[in-house]
Every structure is written in C-alpha cells, then in structure tokens.
Amino acid sequence: MVSSHASQVRALRQRLHDLQRAGLTHLPRAEAPSVDPDAGISQRSTETGQPLTDCLSTTNGGSPIVSLTQKREQLQVLNEEVAPCTQCEILAQGRTQTVFGVGNPNAELCFIGEAPGRDEDKKGEPFVGRAGQLLDRIIVACNMTRDEVYICNILKCRPPDNRNPLPDEVAHCRTFLDRQLEIVKPRFICTLGGVASQTLLDVQQSMGKLRGQFYSYLNSQVMCTYHPAYLLRNPAAKAMVWEDMKMLMAAMGRPIEST
C-alpha cells in the first residue's frame, strides 16, 4: 500500500514537471458554479488557479508545504551565511568568493560535486569550466536542462591548486550542504566523484564499488558516478557514466534511449 502511494506521488510529480516544462504556470481552479441572486443564473469563477510551483511543493511526501519563492529566500539566506565564512582559514584567504549552488530550488534531481575549481571560484557558480561543460552535455543527453536541476559542491571554497578537500574542511562545509539539501528536498541525488560520494554517504568504498546501485540519504535516492573531470582524463569511463545515467533516469520515470 505504501509502495502504491509512493508510485502515485512520483507519477503526479512527473506530470506536474512535464506541465511546467511545457510552459504552464498555474493549474486551473476547480470551477464550482456560483449563483448570481440578481440574475438567477449560475456563473463560473474566473479566478487564477494555484501556481504550479506550489503544487509541486505539496507532493514532497508529507513534509511542510514550502513554495518556490520561500525556497529561494531560504537558499539566499543560507548563501549569505556561507559567503563570509572563515572556518577554514587557508580556503578563506585563497578564494575569490564562495561558490554556493545554482539551479531550480524545486529540482527533482541534484548533482553534487567535490569543490569549486579556478573557473568556478572566478564566476561564483559551480561547474562552469571544462568539467561543467561536460556535465551540461550529460544533462542534455538525459533530456533535461541545467535550469531543471540543482547543482552544488561539498566545499563552497576552492582548495589551493585544486587539491582534495581535507577532512576538517569537509566537516566545516557539511552543515551548509545538509541545509541546502533540506531546503531543495530533491527526490534524487547524483554524486560526482569519490569525495562527494564518500562524504554524503559517510562511506569509504571506491567509486568502482559504489556506482551501479542506489543509496539513501534522508528522503533522497542517491546514485554515485564518476566526476566529469575524471572523464576528461579517462574518456573510456564515459560509457560507465552513461549506464549510471540511464539507470537514474529510469528510476525517475524518464527513461532514455540507449546510444
């Protein structure tokens, strides 16, 4: 019974997302007839219906209803808290700016990477360099757009020389990440690379052992796959990432053609 209800909720969310992509902004309000006492005839209400983004936020498994506008405000407040952070002295001294996150606050899918690179540090947006361009192509190949998903990193500051994050740096930023995900509430998360996967799931297994199956984080299903930067160095791994994406899209109810 629970499984059937969950399936119905997923189907409803998918239908609402389809309508949103088609350009619909409001669902029509139910047309309950009203009686004009002077004319003695029934009339139909012409009120604008409920915003589609609010409808999407009501299908989140029983959590408090939060509108798209409220989510944006909450993320902005958190971003303003992240921006002046100096918990990691070396990172704070070396950054141009913090790199918070970007995308749809109501996203069904969230991509999480490791940390900003040089291009991201310069622009203040995650995944805008060569690896980001490859991620964009992966998203398009999944019949989605960058605006549909939410993208962020484990760290909000660029590590020196793009080295791996240190344990204390990860610990300092983990609270910010958790709060981001609590606001967005994605149904699915795709972690990109070993650091992101191990950090989110609190495990030590290699990417080779983690990929190819789903894990749970809060109310999200998590798929682990290789980081786009790894694919730039190891093009042969693209086939494995594509298999992961097909598995992820099928679980989301958006199967893609094999290529």
Write the layout of secondary structure elements.
Layout (H helix, E strand, L loop, with lengths): L1 H20 L12 E3 L4 E3 L8 H6 L10 H15 L6 H6 L6 E3 L5 E5 L4 H6 L6 H12 L8 E4 L13 H18 L3 E5 L1 H8 L5 H4 L3 E4 L2 E6 L2 H6 L4 H14 L8
Parallel strand pairs: 4-5, 4-6, 6-8
Antiparallel strand pairs: 1-2, 3-5, 7-8
Helix pairs in contact: 3-7
Q: How many runs of DSSP E, i.e. beta strands? A: 8
Q: What class would the helix/strand composition place it in?
A: alpha/beta
- Number of individual domains: 2
Instruction: Spell the H/E element sequence.
Output: HEEHHHEEHHEHEHHEEHH
Order of strands in the sheet with most strands: 3-5-4-6-8-7
Please state the second-level CATH architecture of the largest domain: 3-Layer(aba) Sandwich
Please tell me how large the radius of gyration is.
Answer: 21 Å
- Beta-strand percentage? 5-15%
Given as residue ranges, the uncertain stretches (5+ residues, pLDDT < 50) are 1-9, 29-48, 57-62
The major pleated sheet works out as: 6 strands, mixed
Distance between the termini: 36 Å
Helix content class: 40-55%
- The dominant shape is globular
CATH superfamily of the largest domain: Uracil-DNA glycosylase-like domain
The first-level CATH class of the largest domain is given as: Alpha Beta
CATH topology grouping of the largest domain: Uracil-DNA Glycosylase, subunit E
Q: Let me know the average pLDDT.
A: 84
The number of helical segments is 11
